[in-house]
Amino acid sequence: MNPRGGNGFILEGVRRLGAVTIFLVWLLLASVPALGRPRLLVHQVYNAGARSLIIIMLSGLFVGMVLGLQAFNLLQRFGSEEALGTAAALGLLKELSPVITALLFAGRAGTALTSEIGLMRATDQLTAMEIMAVDPLRHVAAPRFLGGVVAMPLLTVIFSVIGLYGAQLIGVQLMGVDKGVFWSQMQGSVGLHDVSEGVVKSLVFGVACSLIAVHEGYHAEPTAEGVGLATTRTVVASSVITLLLDYVLTAVFL
Amino acid sequence: MRANRTLEIGTGLFVLLGFAALLFLTTQLPASGVKFGAPRAGYHVSAEFDNIGDLKVGAPVTMAGVHVGEVEGIRFDSKNYKAVVSLRVDPQYKQIPEDSYASIQTQGLLGGKYIGISPGGLDSYLKDGSRIEQTQSAIVLESLINKFFANYSSKGSGDSQGQGADNQSKVESRK
Fold first, then answer.
1. What is the DSSP code string of A226-251?
2. What pLDDT is stored for residue A153 in this prediction?
3. Of A43, A82, A158, the CB nearest to B107
4. What is the separation of C-alpha A50 from the centre of its chain, rounded to a whole number of angstroms?
5. By CA distance, what is B33's nearest residue in A?
6. Among B25, B67, B112, whose Cβ lies nearest the Cβ of A161?
7. Residue A147 has pLDDT above 50, yes or no
8. Interchain CB distance below 8 Å, B14 and A161
9. CA B87, CA A60: separation in Å to the nearest integer?
10. In whole angstroms, what is the distance from residue A173 CA to residue A161 CA?
11. N or C terminus of chain A: which is more exposed, having fewer CB within 10 Å?
12. Which chain B residues in 63-82 lie under 8 Å from chain A, judged by CB atoms?
């Protein structure tokens, strides 16, 4: 694509990073007046959050159940199955819930955002708004961005609770770990800071994933092919950024 | 208007569910949190221990390895400097002799503590509010290891330094 080869590739990456950052600033500026229109925001929280609920809950249940099985199998070798509650709670709260929720969010809500805004761009709806002196950033982009930021932490804690239930289902009902031990060991070693670590992570992921989705849609090439490409880029970029940020945040929190 | 209503209800449910989950995580997971839920059935018995190790609320109470109840509360008695543990025993286990013996034991090598009850021989049974008199404290692994090493090293030094003394005593005993 770029005749300058390797150098151009790097330059293109830097350019895109800069574009996203500038877009974030504009988006944040537009978010303040967007807060004054709660109906738009509620609509987007519904789109990004409520409609992702089924997939999040199902995934949470199965992730929790797998975690219960794997952790039980591992802990059994050391004769300390009682630590299952701790292992499941910490694993879910700190890592699995924020990351898997963000990945699912990118696939379920992020793609919807990108293709919706991209199609608005392709059918000149955004241009029409600009002509009517209606700021599309404020009316289209900002509410969707904020909706994602609000929905992500909520989805994450729901994922955690369902996951814990799944781990408990396997550990206590199937494998016969004592229920009291499961909970008391968990309560003894999980602190509020572990819960807040997960929430902070999910907030950061919420900002990153929503920003990428809205940005890709907003700047999509106004063709059918362009919207498709933008949607793909949203999933790829969101997933990679989520995992990268997860490492950084984990290092910070430890 | 109709579509708007379902949208609002859906969003409301979602937000409600999210905050309920957050409430659950912040209050139910940390041990310091508030506990919800109706109290479980059963009767309550207390026992005093010199040292409970890291026994926690919710730990199981067993007889012959079978789960018969759980630890419901732990507090410190500042008069006797002892830990007072209150136990909830499931209602179907009514016939535990009054002179039963409660000891704090460890599950596995690294596992949590639990309370094991060994039955006594009396015909009168524990009831709500009664106290288990005979108890055995938790065995703290570190102190056990300390004791072992203290024993071991004093023996070792006794062998190397006390050679002369040993000979002397042998001589004396010959006399």
1. HHHHHHHHHHHHHHHHHHHHHHHHHH
2. 94
3. A82
4. 14
5. A187
6. B25
7. yes
8. no
9. 35
10. 17
11. N
12. 67, 70-71
Q: Amino acid letter at A25?
A: V
Residues facing B102 on adjacent strands: B117, B135
Q: What is the mean pLDDT of chain B?
A: 78
A192–B70 CB contact, under 8 Å: no
- What is the C-alpha to C-alpha distance for residues A48 and A106, in angstroms, rounded to an integer? 10
Residue for token digits 């807040």? A196
Greatest extent of chain B over all pairs of C-alpha atoms, in Å = 114
DSSP string, A80-125: -GGGHHHHHHHIIIIIIHHHHHHHHHIIIIIHHHHHHHHHHHHTTH
Of the candidates A53, A184, A195, which has its C-beta nearest B25's C-beta?
A195
pLDDT-derived band at B92, boundaries 50, 70, 90: confident
Contact A141, A114 (CB under 8 A): no
The confidence band for A79, taking pLDDT boundaries of 50, 70 and 90, is: confident
Mean pLDDT of all residues in A220-243 = 93
Backbone angles phi, psi at A175, to 5 degrees: -95, -10
Rounded to the nearest integer, the mean pLDDT of chain A is: 90
- pLDDT (mean) for B130-153: 82
Mean pLDDT of B131-152: 82
